[in-house]
C-alpha cells in the first residue's frame, strides 16, 4: 500500500513538472503598445525584480528621442528637444536633464540589445504607463508629437532648406562636408559635388525630416546647424556611409565625431561613393593656428586650398583677390574650407563675400 502511494506521488510530481514546463514554454511574450500601436522590438521584453525591461532604442525612438551609444563607457544618451537622458549599463543611477535619478533595475545588455525599465523611460519622458497582467502587455500613452520639417529645397550635398513655421530656413548638416557644387566661383564646383548634391536631393527633397541640435545651434550666417534624420536614420551618417562626404567636425559641435570618423574610414576602405576607384585619398589636414607663437608662412596646402588669409589679419578671401593688395608670402595661410578658416577665428572678407 505504501509502495503504491509512493508511485502515485511520483506520478503527481512528474505531471506538475510537465505542466509547469509547458506553461513556460508556451507563455506569450510580453508586448508593448504605444498609443495603442504595437512596438516592434529586436528582443522580447523581460521581467526582472517585478520590473519590465524593454529594448531601449525601440522605445526611445518611438517617443521621439535620438539615441547615442558610447561603447567605451557603456553609456546611452537619449536626446529630445526637452530632455537629455543618460543611462549606463549596470548602473542604477540615471540622469534626466542633469538631475540624478535612481532606477529600481539598472540597464542591462541582453542579446546585444540594451534593455531598460520601461516605466522609468516612459515616465521620464512624460508618458503614462500601465500594465495589463492578463494580456501581459505594457500600455504607454504619450501626448508628445514628433516635430518634422518638410525639405523644400536641397542647396547642395550638405545644406538644405526646410519649412519652419511657414518660413524657409537654411540648415547646414554639421560634422560633415561635401564637395562644392554651388560655389559663387564656378571653377571651384566639381563633378563630385554635383553627385553628392544629386544624392541628397534624391533622398531628402520634399521629405519630412527631424532635427537634432548640438551645443551651437546657428553659424555666423544664421544657418541652423543640425543632425538631420530621415525617419530614425541620421542622414549626416548616411552621407559618410555612402562616401558622399568627409568628416568636418569642429568644437563645440562634436557629439558624434567618433562615429563619423569610423564611418568615413569604412567608406574609404570599401571605395564607396566619392572614394570609388581612387587608389589613395588622404584626409585634408585641418590645422589649427596658434598666433601666440612666432609663425612664418606660407601655411597649408595651396593645391587644395579654397581660401587664403594673412597671419596679420582676421579675414579670409578668395584666392586671386586684389582689392587690398597682395599678402606677403611669410604671412600667407591656405585654408581648405570656410569651416577651416572660421575654426581658426577668421571671418569672411566683406568685399569677397558681399
How would you describe this structure to a colleague?
The protein is of the alpha+beta class and about 350 residues long. It folds into three domains: about 30-140, Copper amine oxidase-like, N-terminal domain (Copper Amine Oxidase, Chain A, domain 1, 2-Layer Sandwich); about 150-275, OB fold (Dihydrolipoamide Acetyltransferase, E2P); about 285-354, no CATH class. The protein is built from seven helices and 25 strands. The strands form six sheets. The protein has a five-stranded antiparallel β-sheet with strand order 5-6-7-8-9, covered by helices on one side. Strand 22 (about 305-310) and strand 23 form a beta hairpin. Helix 5 packs parallel to helix 6 (about 255-270). The termini are far apart.
Topology:
Layout: H1 2-25, E1 31-34, E2 37-38, E3 46-48, E4 51-55, H2 56-62, E5 66-70, E6 75-80, E7 83-88, E8 93-96, E9 99-102, E10 108-110, E11 113-117, H3 118-124, E12 128-132, E13 137-141, E14 149-156, E15 159-164, E16 167-173, E17 175-177, H4 191-204, E18 208-212, E19 224-230, E20 233-234, H5 235-241, E21 246-248, H6 257-269, E22 307-310, E23 315-317, E24 332-335, H7 338-343, E25 347-348
Parallel strand pairs: 1-13, 16-19, 23-25
Antiparallel strand pairs: 1-2, 3-4, 4-11, 5-6, 6-7, 7-8, 8-9, 10-11, 12-13, 14-15, 14-18, 15-16, 17-21, 18-19, 19-20, 22-23, 22-24
Helix pairs in contact: 5-6
Amino acid at each position: 500500500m505504501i509502495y503504491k502511494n509512493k508511485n502515485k506521488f511520483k506520478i503527481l510530481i512528474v505531471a506538475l513538472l510537465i505542466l509547469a514546463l509547458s506553461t513556460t514554454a508556451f507563455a506569450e511574450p510580453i508586448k508593448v503598445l504605444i498609443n495603442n500601436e504595437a512596438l516592434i522590438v529586436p528582443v522580447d521584453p523581460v521581467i526582472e525584480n517585478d520590473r519590465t525591461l524593454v529594448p531601449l532604442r525601440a522605445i526611445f525612438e518611438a517617443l521621439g528621442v535620438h539615441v547615442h551609444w558610447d561603447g567605451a563607457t557603456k553609456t546611452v544618451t537619449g536626446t529630445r528637444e526637452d530632455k537629455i537622458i543618460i543611462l549606463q549599463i549596470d548602473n542604477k543611477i540615471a540622469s534626466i536633464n542633469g538631475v540624478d535619478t535612481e532606477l529600481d533595475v539598472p540597464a542591462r545588455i541582453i542579446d546585444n540589445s540594451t534593455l531598460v525599465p520601461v516605466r522609468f523611460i516612459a515616465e521620464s519622458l512624460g508618458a503614462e504607463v500601465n500594465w495589463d497582467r492578463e494580456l501581459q502587455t505594457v500600455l504607454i500613452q504619450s501626448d508628445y508629437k514628433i516635430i518634422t520639417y518638410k525639405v523644400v529645397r536641397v542647396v547642395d550635398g550638405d545644406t538644405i532648406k526646410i519649412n519652419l513655421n511657414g518660413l524657409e530656413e537654411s540648415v547646414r548638416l554639421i560634422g560633415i562636408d561635401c564637395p562644392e557644387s554651388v560655389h559663387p566661383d564656378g571653377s571651384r564646383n566639381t563633378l563630385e559635388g554635383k553627385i553628392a548634391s544629386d544624392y541628397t536631393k534624391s533622398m531628402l527633397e520634399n521629405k519630412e525630416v527631424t532635427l537634432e541640435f548640438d551645443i551651437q545651434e546657428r553659424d555666423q550666417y544664421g544657418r541652423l546647424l543640425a543632425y538631420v534624420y530621415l525617419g530614425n536614420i541620421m542622414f549626416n551618417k548616411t552621407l559618410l556611409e555612402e562616401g558622399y562626404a568627409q568628416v568636418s567636425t569642429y568644437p563645440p559641435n562634436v557629439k558624434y565625431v567618433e562615429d563619423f570618423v569610423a564611418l568615413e574610414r569604412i567608406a574609404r576602405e570599401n571605395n564607396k561613393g566619392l572614394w570609388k576607384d581612387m587608389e589613395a585619398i588622404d584626409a585634408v589636414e585641418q590645422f589649427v593656428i596658434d598666433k601666440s607663437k612666432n609663425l612664418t608662412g606660407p601655411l597649408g596646402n595651396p593645391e587644395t586650398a579654397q581660401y587664403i588669409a594673412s597671419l596679420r589679419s582676421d579675414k579670409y578671401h578668395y584666392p586671386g583677390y586684389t582689392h587690398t593688395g597682395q599678402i606677403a608670402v611669410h604671412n600667407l595661410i591656405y585654408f581648405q574650407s570656410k569651416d577651416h578658416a572660421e575654426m581658426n577665428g577668421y571671418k569672411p572678407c566683406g568685399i569677397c563675400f558681399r
